[in-house]
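lol ok so funny story. i was supposed to be doing the assay writeup but got distracted and ended up predicting the structure for this chain instead. priorities right. anyway since i did it might as well share w the group, maybe its usefull for someone
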Amino acid sequence: MNILAISDIHGEENTKLFEYLKNNDIDLVLISGDITDFGPLEFVDTFINKIFDLDCDVIAVPGNCDPSGICNAIKDTEAICLHNNIIYYGDVVIFGYGGSNPTPFNTPGEIDDDKIYASIYELFAEYEFMANEDAKKIKILLTHAPPYNTSADLTSSGDHVGSQGVKKTIHEFQPDISICGHIHEAKSKDKVGITEIFNPGMLKNNGAVLIEINDDDLTYNADIISLE
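and the output, tada:
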């Protein structure tokens, strides 16, 4: 199974994404927020349905620049809006949480960091309570906000502006992979404990994360790629 993760579309299609999906065997596209640039919501339907037309499933979380109604707009395309939820996808379990910790810009999708922590904690706690310990799953955390004090949240001015709540839950539950976005210039791969952290950067800059899963033994390889 192959998964491609992208982020921060901001209402701008990138034809190189569609070319890549056409020419490669991708089962699932993960979108880690900011599909629009404060709207319009009609772009969601246009963008996601072009991915569906290339025979890929889509799971997304909203970003801080997506307006009210974004989850309904995602669901109206038959994609899955995974904000504050969990989904099993084959041998993968994906934990989703959208929006971001507060910014200086008063964007619509900002959430108190304590709430981010408490909500993601509950997702992991629910999974650990319900999960069959003998059934191995690759665990992916899909957020818009990057974990604090990592390469994924480093701005061009040298400040770390990510979420303490995301970072804390990664420390406590150690998913295999964390996919985020939000900080456009922070395209990077990092690690917190055993968790690999990926920020693919803004889609228009051709960054993505490719996760290749061996279904026989549930090993995987994940790395940032260029869509060029």
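The mean pLDDT is 97. The longest helix spans residues 113-130.
back to the writeup now i swear
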